[in-house]
């Protein structure tokens, strides 16, 4: 009887770990969607994928998150979305 309970415990544990891992990957992929130019907040903030303002781009903005060197990164202004490192919006703040 003890072996059956132990076996079921390991099956459930393994399934839970796999489910949590795959679920986390799916949620991160869903939340990490590239910001579209027709997004209402993007339009309100005059977001563009390619900055036309000298010396200002998302990669040198204080609001950008994530690691340097990535083409698309999270931004505090657009939760759940990724902005282009070469992009720009009206909320740009010089990185300190």
TrEMBL record:
Coiled coil: none
Protein role: Specific class of high-redox-potential 4Fe-4S ferredoxins. Functions in anaerobic electron transport in most purple and in some other photosynthetic bacteria and in at least one genus (Paracoccus) of halophilic, denitrifying bacteria.
Family under the similarity heading: Belongs to the high-potential iron-sulfur protein (HiPIP) family.
SUPFAM superfamilies documented for this protein: HIPIP (high potential iron protein)
Sorted UniProt keywords: 4Fe-4S, Electron transport, Iron, Iron-sulfur, Metal-binding, Transport
Keyword Signal attached: no
Source taxon at top rank: Bacteria
Protein name as catalogued: High-potential iron-sulfur protein
The protein's assembly and partners: Homodimer.
GO molecular function, one term: 4 iron, 4 sulfur cluster binding
Highest classification ranks of the organism: Bacteria, Pseudomonadati, Pseudomonadota, Gammaproteobacteria, Alteromonadales
Entries under PROSITE patterns matching the protein: HIPIP, TAT
Biological processes annotated in GO: aerobic electron transport chain
UniProt domain High potential iron-sulfur proteins family profile: residue ranges: 29-96
Gene3D superfamilies, per the entry: High potential iron-sulphur protein
